[in-house]
Design brief:
Elements: E1 4-6, E2 11-16, E3 19-28, E4 31-38, H1 45-61, E5 65-68, H2 71-79
Parallel strand pairs: 4-5
Antiparallel strand pairs: 1-2, 2-3, 3-4
C-alpha cells in the first residue's frame, strides 16, 4: 500500500479502484489529530483498517502522539489495543 502524505491538503491518501481514500489530519505540539476519514464510497473495511494501521506506523516513525477525533478512529483504537500507547497522557478510549 503506497500512502502519500499530502502536506498541502493535510491528508494521507491512497488510490483505490473506486477512487481516493483519505485521512485528514492536523499536527499540533507533536500530536497528530486524525480529524476525518474520507472513503468516497469505498466500503472495504479491511482496506480501511490496513490504511489506518499504516498511517499510525508513519506517526510512530515520526514520534508523534495520536489524538483520534473521528468515530472511525476511536473504534479502531478500541479494537486494536497495540496502538493505545500512542495516545497522549490523559486520553482514554
Amino acid at each position: 500500500m503506497e500512502i502519500k502524505d499530502n502536506e498541502l491538503l493535510r491528508q494521507f491518501e491512497i488510490i483505490t479502484e473506486t477512487g481516493l481514500v483519505a485521512i485528514e489530519y492536523s499536527i499540533q505540539e507533536r500530536k497528530l489529530f486524525l480529524t476525518k476519514f474520507c472513503n468516497n464510497n469505498n466500503e472495504d473495511e479491511e482496506l480501511h483498517t490496513e490504511f489506518i494501521k499504516n498511517v499510525l506506523e508513519i506517526a510512530e516513525e515520526r514520534k508523534l502522539k495520536v489524538v483520534p477525533t473521528h468515530s472511525k478512529f476511536i473504534s479502531f483504537f478500541r479494537k486494536n489495543r497495540r496502538f493505545q500507547e500512542m495516545l497522549p497522557p490523559g486520553i482514554k478510549i
